[in-house]
Design goal:
By secondary structure, the chain is an alpha/beta fold. Among the domains are: 155 residues, FAD/NAD(P)-binding domain; 91 residues, no CATH class. It is built from twelve helices and 21 strands. The strands form five sheets. It has a seven-stranded mixed sheet. A five-stranded parallel sheet has the order 10-2-1-14-21. Helix 1 runs parallel beside helix 12 and helix 3 runs antiparallel to helix 7.
Protein backbone atom coordinates (compact mmCIF):
# COMPACT_ATOMS: atom_id res chain seq x y z
CA UNK A 1 0.00 0.00 0.00
CA UNK A 2 1.02 3.61 -0.33
CA UNK A 3 -0.17 4.27 3.25
CA UNK A 4 -0.42 1.94 6.24
CA UNK A 5 -2.35 3.63 9.07
CA UNK A 6 -2.09 2.12 12.54
CA UNK A 7 -5.15 2.69 14.70
CA UNK A 8 -8.77 3.58 13.87
CA UNK A 9 -9.29 6.27 16.48
CA UNK A 10 -9.97 9.93 15.63
CA UNK A 11 -6.45 10.46 14.23
CA UNK A 12 -6.32 7.42 11.96
CA UNK A 13 -9.91 7.76 10.76
CA UNK A 14 -9.50 11.43 9.94
CA UNK A 15 -6.27 10.88 8.02
CA UNK A 16 -7.78 7.95 6.10
CA UNK A 17 -10.98 9.79 5.20
CA UNK A 18 -9.05 12.85 4.03
CA UNK A 19 -7.09 10.55 1.72
CA UNK A 20 -10.25 8.96 0.35
CA UNK A 21 -11.94 12.31 -0.17
CA UNK A 22 -8.94 13.38 -2.27
CA UNK A 23 -9.29 10.28 -4.46
CA UNK A 24 -6.52 8.24 -2.81
CA UNK A 25 -7.57 4.63 -2.22
CA UNK A 26 -4.17 2.94 -1.84
CA UNK A 27 -4.20 2.73 1.96
CA UNK A 28 -5.07 0.33 4.76
CA UNK A 29 -6.08 1.06 8.37
CA UNK A 30 -5.19 -1.60 10.95
CA UNK A 31 -7.21 -1.61 14.19
CA UNK A 32 -6.58 -3.98 17.11
CA UNK A 33 -10.17 -3.82 18.42
CA UNK A 34 -13.27 -5.23 16.74
CA UNK A 35 -14.65 -1.75 16.03
CA UNK A 36 -13.38 1.76 15.39
CA UNK A 37 -13.22 4.78 17.68
CA UNK A 38 -10.29 4.22 20.02
CA UNK A 39 -10.76 6.09 23.29
CA UNK A 40 -13.93 7.63 21.85
CA UNK A 41 -15.87 4.37 21.50
CA UNK A 42 -19.34 4.03 23.03
CA UNK A 43 -21.35 1.09 24.29
CA UNK A 44 -25.01 0.67 25.09
CA UNK A 45 -25.29 0.32 28.87
CA UNK A 46 -28.63 0.32 30.70
CA UNK A 47 -30.48 1.47 27.60
CA UNK A 48 -28.32 4.37 26.45
CA UNK A 49 -24.81 5.38 25.53
CA UNK A 50 -21.79 4.93 27.76
CA UNK A 51 -18.51 6.36 26.50
CA UNK A 52 -15.98 3.77 27.57
CA UNK A 53 -13.00 6.13 27.35
CA UNK A 54 -14.54 8.70 29.70
CA UNK A 55 -15.88 12.14 28.89
CA UNK A 56 -15.35 12.97 25.21
CA UNK A 57 -17.20 15.84 23.57
CA UNK A 58 -16.88 17.85 20.37
CA UNK A 59 -15.62 21.35 21.10
CA UNK A 60 -16.89 24.34 19.12
CA UNK A 61 -13.56 26.19 18.91
CA UNK A 62 -12.37 24.71 15.59
CA UNK A 63 -15.05 25.39 12.94
CA UNK A 64 -13.01 23.69 10.20
CA UNK A 65 -12.92 20.50 12.26
CA UNK A 66 -16.66 20.55 12.89
CA UNK A 67 -17.36 21.26 9.22
CA UNK A 68 -15.34 18.15 8.32
CA UNK A 69 -16.97 15.93 10.96
CA UNK A 70 -20.50 17.11 10.17
CA UNK A 71 -20.10 15.52 6.73
CA UNK A 72 -20.28 12.17 8.48
CA UNK A 73 -22.77 13.08 11.21
CA UNK A 74 -24.75 16.22 10.29
CA UNK A 75 -25.02 19.09 12.73
CA UNK A 76 -28.77 18.52 13.20
CA UNK A 77 -27.91 15.21 14.90
CA UNK A 78 -26.06 17.03 17.68
CA UNK A 79 -27.16 19.05 20.70
CA UNK A 80 -25.17 22.14 21.64
CA UNK A 81 -24.49 22.61 25.37
CA UNK A 82 -23.05 25.34 27.54
CA UNK A 83 -20.39 23.79 29.72
CA UNK A 84 -21.31 23.24 33.37
CA UNK A 85 -18.40 21.62 35.16
CA UNK A 86 -17.76 21.88 38.87
CA UNK A 87 -15.24 21.08 41.58
CA UNK A 88 -16.09 19.75 45.03
CA UNK A 89 -13.51 21.13 47.47
CA UNK A 90 -14.20 20.37 51.12
CA UNK A 91 -17.72 21.59 51.83
CA UNK A 92 -17.79 23.82 48.74
CA UNK A 93 -19.02 23.05 45.23
CA UNK A 94 -17.80 25.68 42.78
CA UNK A 95 -17.72 26.10 39.05
CA UNK A 96 -14.58 25.29 37.11
CA UNK A 97 -11.97 26.83 37.06
CA UNK A 98 -11.50 27.13 40.81
CA UNK A 99 -9.45 30.34 40.72
CA UNK A 100 -12.26 32.25 38.97
CA UNK A 101 -15.00 30.96 41.25
CA UNK A 102 -13.66 31.17 44.79
CA UNK A 103 -16.45 33.70 45.33
CA UNK A 104 -18.89 30.76 45.38
CA UNK A 105 -17.29 29.41 48.58
CA UNK A 106 -18.18 30.29 52.14
CA UNK A 107 -16.92 33.70 53.28
CA UNK A 108 -14.45 32.10 55.66
CA UNK A 109 -12.92 29.98 52.88
CA UNK A 110 -12.80 32.94 50.51
CA UNK A 111 -10.64 34.80 53.03
CA UNK A 112 -8.24 31.87 53.39
CA UNK A 113 -7.89 31.44 49.61
CA UNK A 114 -7.36 35.17 49.09
CA UNK A 115 -4.63 35.24 51.74
CA UNK A 116 -2.93 32.30 50.05
CA UNK A 117 -3.13 33.72 46.52
CA UNK A 118 -1.81 37.10 47.67
CA UNK A 119 1.51 35.52 48.65
CA UNK A 120 1.82 33.03 45.78
CA UNK A 121 5.28 33.23 44.26
CA UNK A 122 4.02 34.40 40.86
CA UNK A 123 2.28 37.35 42.55
CA UNK A 124 5.35 38.23 44.62
CA UNK A 125 7.69 38.03 41.65
CA UNK A 126 9.88 35.22 43.01
CA UNK A 127 11.80 32.94 40.66
CA UNK A 128 9.79 30.18 39.04
CA UNK A 129 10.73 26.73 40.46
CA UNK A 130 11.34 23.71 38.23
CA UNK A 131 9.86 20.92 40.38
CA UNK A 132 6.19 20.20 39.62
CA UNK A 133 4.88 20.43 43.20
CA UNK A 134 6.88 23.58 43.99
CA UNK A 135 5.67 25.09 40.72
CA UNK A 136 2.02 24.50 41.64
CA UNK A 137 2.52 26.30 44.96
CA UNK A 138 4.30 29.14 43.14
CA UNK A 139 1.65 29.46 40.45
CA UNK A 140 -1.59 29.00 42.42
CA UNK A 141 -0.87 29.56 46.10
CA UNK A 142 -0.86 26.97 48.87
CA UNK A 143 -4.66 26.63 49.29
CA UNK A 144 -5.43 25.90 45.63
CA UNK A 145 -2.36 23.66 45.50
CA UNK A 146 -3.18 21.61 48.60
CA UNK A 147 -6.96 21.53 48.34
CA UNK A 148 -7.25 20.89 44.60
CA UNK A 149 -4.34 20.75 42.17
CA UNK A 150 -1.96 18.42 44.00
CA UNK A 151 -4.48 15.82 45.21
CA UNK A 152 -6.40 15.90 41.92
CA UNK A 153 -3.29 15.37 39.80
CA UNK A 154 -2.12 12.60 42.13
CA UNK A 155 -5.45 10.85 41.66
CA UNK A 156 -5.60 11.33 37.90
CA UNK A 157 -1.96 10.85 36.90
CA UNK A 158 0.47 9.68 39.57
CA UNK A 159 1.38 9.86 43.24
CA UNK A 160 4.90 10.87 42.20
CA UNK A 161 4.10 14.28 40.75
CA UNK A 162 7.71 15.45 40.61
CA UNK A 163 8.32 13.03 37.74
CA UNK A 164 6.15 15.41 35.71
CA UNK A 165 7.52 18.49 34.00
CA UNK A 166 6.02 21.95 34.27
CA UNK A 167 6.18 22.79 30.53
CA UNK A 168 2.59 21.59 29.94
CA UNK A 169 1.20 23.86 32.68
CA UNK A 170 2.81 27.08 31.55
CA UNK A 171 -0.30 27.97 29.55
CA UNK A 172 -2.19 28.28 32.85
CA UNK A 173 -2.76 31.94 33.63
CA UNK A 174 -1.34 33.34 36.86
CA UNK A 175 -3.93 33.45 39.63
CA UNK A 176 -4.17 37.19 40.06
CA UNK A 177 -4.90 38.38 43.59
CA UNK A 178 -6.61 41.49 42.20
CA UNK A 179 -8.91 39.53 39.88
CA UNK A 180 -9.73 36.98 42.58
CA UNK A 181 -10.56 39.76 45.03
CA UNK A 182 -12.77 41.48 42.44
CA UNK A 183 -14.60 38.23 41.75
CA UNK A 184 -15.29 37.76 45.48
CA UNK A 185 -16.51 41.35 45.89
CA UNK A 186 -18.67 41.36 42.77
CA UNK A 187 -19.73 37.70 42.91
CA UNK A 188 -18.79 36.85 39.33
CA UNK A 189 -15.86 35.22 37.55
CA UNK A 190 -12.90 37.32 36.42
CA UNK A 191 -9.85 36.30 34.41
CA UNK A 192 -9.31 33.78 31.63
CA UNK A 193 -12.07 31.24 31.18
CA UNK A 194 -11.34 27.61 30.22
CA UNK A 195 -11.87 25.89 26.89
CA UNK A 196 -14.94 23.77 26.20
CA UNK A 197 -17.22 26.67 27.16
CA UNK A 198 -19.59 25.12 24.62
CA UNK A 199 -19.61 21.61 23.18
CA UNK A 200 -21.62 19.28 20.97
CA UNK A 201 -22.89 15.84 21.94
CA UNK A 202 -25.04 13.51 19.77
CA UNK A 203 -28.79 13.64 20.33
CA UNK A 204 -29.46 9.91 19.96
CA UNK A 205 -26.10 8.19 20.32
CA UNK A 206 -22.86 8.13 22.24
CA UNK A 207 -19.84 10.02 20.94
CA UNK A 208 -18.60 6.77 19.41
CA UNK A 209 -21.28 6.91 16.71
CA UNK A 210 -19.34 9.59 14.84
CA UNK A 211 -16.26 7.39 14.50
CA UNK A 212 -18.29 4.33 13.46
CA UNK A 213 -19.67 6.36 10.59
CA UNK A 214 -16.19 7.53 9.60
CA UNK A 215 -15.05 3.90 9.63
CA UNK A 216 -18.05 2.94 7.47
CA UNK A 217 -16.93 5.50 4.89
CA UNK A 218 -13.64 3.60 4.41
CA UNK A 219 -14.91 0.08 5.07
CA UNK A 220 -12.97 -1.42 2.17
CA UNK A 221 -9.73 0.01 3.58
CA UNK A 222 -9.88 -1.04 7.21
CA UNK A 223 -9.14 -4.34 8.97
CA UNK A 224 -10.13 -5.12 12.56
CA UNK A 225 -8.61 -7.38 15.21
CA UNK A 226 -5.17 -6.51 13.85
CA UNK A 227 -2.86 -5.71 16.76
CA UNK A 228 0.45 -4.47 15.36
CA UNK A 229 3.41 -5.80 17.35
CA UNK A 230 6.42 -5.24 15.08
CA UNK A 231 7.69 -2.38 12.94
CA UNK A 232 10.68 -2.46 10.57
CA UNK A 233 11.98 0.98 9.67
CA UNK A 234 14.32 -0.43 7.04
CA UNK A 235 11.44 -1.74 4.93
CA UNK A 236 8.53 0.37 6.27
CA UNK A 237 6.77 -2.85 7.19
CA UNK A 238 4.59 -3.73 10.17
CA UNK A 239 3.63 -7.18 11.41
CA UNK A 240 0.46 -8.00 13.33
CA UNK A 241 0.11 -10.41 16.23
CA UNK A 242 -1.23 -13.08 13.86
CA UNK A 243 1.92 -12.86 11.74
CA UNK A 244 0.62 -10.89 8.74
CA UNK A 245 2.99 -8.32 7.21
CA UNK A 246 1.87 -5.00 5.74
CA UNK A 247 4.23 -2.81 3.77
CA UNK A 248 3.64 0.84 2.98
CA UNK A 249 5.51 3.66 1.34
CA UNK A 250 4.40 5.68 4.36
CA UNK A 251 3.34 4.50 7.82
CA UNK A 252 1.08 6.71 9.97
CA UNK A 253 1.11 5.44 13.55
CA UNK A 254 -1.51 6.62 16.01
CA UNK A 255 -0.95 3.75 18.47
CA UNK A 256 1.20 3.89 21.61
CA UNK A 257 4.89 3.43 20.81
CA UNK A 258 5.08 0.99 23.70
CA UNK A 259 2.83 -1.40 21.75
CA UNK A 260 5.67 -2.29 19.37
CA UNK A 261 7.14 -5.41 20.93
CA UNK A 262 9.84 -5.51 18.27
CA UNK A 263 11.45 -2.58 16.48
CA UNK A 264 13.97 -3.06 13.69
CA UNK A 265 16.19 -0.43 12.11
CA UNK A 266 15.89 2.20 14.86
CA UNK A 267 18.97 3.56 16.68
CA UNK A 268 19.34 1.89 20.08
CA UNK A 269 19.26 5.14 22.05
CA UNK A 270 15.92 6.13 20.54
CA UNK A 271 14.52 2.62 21.00
CA UNK A 272 15.57 2.62 24.66
CA UNK A 273 14.05 6.07 25.23
CA UNK A 274 10.58 4.73 24.35
CA UNK A 275 10.74 2.69 27.56
CA UNK A 276 10.91 5.96 29.51
CA UNK A 277 7.54 7.17 28.23
CA UNK A 278 4.85 6.93 30.93
CA UNK A 279 1.07 6.77 30.82
CA UNK A 280 -1.87 6.24 33.13
CA UNK A 281 -4.70 3.71 32.86
CA UNK A 282 -8.27 4.68 33.72
CA UNK A 283 -11.32 2.62 34.60
CA UNK A 284 -14.76 3.98 33.77
CA UNK A 285 -17.70 2.65 35.80
CA UNK A 286 -21.44 3.12 35.32
CA UNK A 287 -23.77 4.02 38.20
CA UNK A 288 -27.51 4.00 37.59
CA UNK A 289 -28.52 6.63 40.17
CA UNK A 290 -29.63 10.04 38.92
CA UNK A 291 -27.86 12.92 40.65
CA UNK A 292 -29.54 16.15 41.70
CA UNK A 293 -27.27 18.45 39.72
CA UNK A 294 -27.23 20.31 36.41
CA UNK A 295 -23.48 19.80 36.00
CA UNK A 296 -22.23 17.62 33.17
CA UNK A 297 -19.03 16.67 34.95
CA UNK A 298 -17.69 17.17 38.47
CA UNK A 299 -14.10 16.97 39.74
CA UNK A 300 -13.29 15.42 43.13
CA UNK A 301 -9.81 16.07 44.56
CA UNK A 302 -10.72 14.39 47.88
CA UNK A 303 -8.09 11.60 48.24
CA UNK A 304 -10.52 9.46 50.23
CA UNK A 305 -12.62 8.97 47.09
CA UNK A 306 -11.14 6.51 44.60
CA UNK A 307 -12.40 8.32 41.47
CA UNK A 308 -11.21 11.74 40.33
CA UNK A 309 -14.26 12.85 38.35
CA UNK A 310 -17.77 11.87 37.34
CA UNK A 311 -19.71 12.42 34.11
CA UNK A 312 -23.42 13.02 34.73
CA UNK A 313 -24.88 11.22 31.74
CA UNK A 314 -28.48 12.42 32.07
CA UNK A 315 -27.31 16.05 31.70
CA UNK A 316 -25.88 15.64 28.20
CA UNK A 317 -27.27 12.38 26.82
CA UNK A 318 -31.05 12.78 26.27
CA UNK A 319 -33.28 10.04 27.64
CA UNK A 320 -30.55 8.44 29.72
CA UNK A 321 -29.98 8.11 33.43
CA UNK A 322 -27.09 7.73 35.84
CA UNK A 323 -23.47 8.78 35.76
CA UNK A 324 -20.05 7.24 35.35
CA UNK A 325 -16.86 7.59 37.31
CA UNK A 326 -13.25 7.73 36.15
CA UNK A 327 -10.64 6.07 38.38
CA UNK A 328 -6.91 5.66 37.95
CA UNK A 329 -6.04 1.95 37.85
CA UNK A 330 -3.69 2.45 40.82
CA UNK A 331 -6.68 3.42 42.99
CA UNK A 332 -9.21 0.73 42.05
CA UNK A 333 -8.28 -1.36 45.09
CA UNK A 334 -9.93 1.35 47.23
CA UNK A 335 -13.36 0.52 45.79
CA UNK A 336 -15.92 -1.89 47.18
CA UNK A 337 -16.69 -4.78 44.80
CA UNK A 338 -19.94 -4.38 42.82
CA UNK A 339 -21.65 -5.60 39.66
CA UNK A 340 -21.63 -2.26 37.82
CA UNK A 341 -20.50 -2.15 34.20
CA UNK A 342 -16.79 -1.24 34.06
CA UNK A 343 -14.25 -0.68 31.32
CA UNK A 344 -10.49 -0.48 31.74
CA UNK A 345 -8.62 1.83 29.35
CA UNK A 346 -5.02 0.67 29.50
CA UNK A 347 -3.85 3.69 27.52
CA UNK A 348 -5.81 6.67 28.82
CA UNK A 349 -3.47 9.62 29.39
CA UNK A 350 0.13 10.15 28.25
CA UNK A 351 2.11 11.52 31.19
CA UNK A 352 4.05 14.74 30.69
CA UNK A 353 7.24 13.53 32.34
CA UNK A 354 10.30 15.77 32.49
CA UNK A 355 12.19 14.13 29.63
CA UNK A 356 9.19 13.49 27.38
CA UNK A 357 9.59 16.54 25.08
CA UNK A 358 13.21 15.64 24.37
CA UNK A 359 12.34 11.96 23.80
CA UNK A 360 9.44 12.64 21.46
CA UNK A 361 11.22 15.34 19.46
CA UNK A 362 14.09 12.98 18.69
CA UNK A 363 11.81 9.98 18.08
CA UNK A 364 9.39 11.77 15.75
CA UNK A 365 12.10 13.65 13.86
CA UNK A 366 14.09 10.49 13.18
CA UNK A 367 11.01 8.40 12.30
CA UNK A 368 9.91 10.99 9.77
CA UNK A 369 13.17 10.49 7.86
CA UNK A 370 12.08 6.85 7.46
CA UNK A 371 8.58 7.83 6.24
CA UNK A 372 6.98 6.90 9.57
CA UNK A 373 4.83 9.65 11.13
CA UNK A 374 3.52 9.73 14.69
CA UNK A 375 0.06 11.29 14.90
CA UNK A 376 -2.47 12.06 17.62
CA UNK A 377 -2.60 11.46 21.35
CA UNK A 378 -0.50 8.30 21.25
CA UNK A 379 1.50 8.78 18.08
CA UNK A 380 2.78 12.07 19.55
CA UNK A 381 2.33 11.10 23.23
CA UNK A 382 0.40 14.30 23.91
CA UNK A 383 -2.80 14.78 25.89
CA UNK A 384 -4.82 15.97 22.89
CA UNK A 385 -8.60 16.29 22.83
CA UNK A 386 -10.39 14.69 19.88
CA UNK A 387 -11.04 17.96 18.04
CA UNK A 388 -7.37 18.92 18.16
CA UNK A 389 -6.41 15.41 17.06
CA UNK A 390 -8.73 15.70 14.05
CA UNK A 391 -7.22 19.08 13.18
CA UNK A 392 -3.68 17.67 13.30
CA UNK A 393 -4.68 14.67 11.17
CA UNK A 394 -6.33 16.92 8.58
CA UNK A 395 -3.19 19.03 8.37
CA UNK A 396 -0.89 16.02 8.02
CA UNK A 397 -3.07 14.50 5.30
CA UNK A 398 -2.94 17.76 3.35
CA UNK A 399 0.83 17.34 3.08
CA UNK A 400 0.31 14.12 1.08
CA UNK A 401 -2.73 15.02 -0.98
Amino acid sequence: MRFIILGAGPAGLTFANKLKQSGETDFMVLERESEAGGLCRSQDVDGSAFDIGGGHFLDVRRPQVNEFLFKFMPEDEWDLYNRDSRIVVGDNEVNHPIEANIWQMTIEDQVEYLKSIAIAGCNLGTDMPQEFVDWIYWKLGSKVAEDYMIPYNQKMFSKELNQLGTYWLEKLPNVSFEETLLSCLNKKAYGTQPGHAQFYYPKKYGYGELWLRMAKAIEGNIEYNKAVKKIDFNTTTVTTADGVEYKGDVIITTIPWMEFREITGMPEDIKESIKELKFSSIQTEYHSENLDTEAQWIYYPNPELSYHRILVRHNFCPGSKGYWTETNSERIAMEEPNDNFKYMNEYAYPLNTIKKPEIMKKLLSWSKTKNVYGLGRWGEHEHYNSDLTVNLAMNLAEQFI
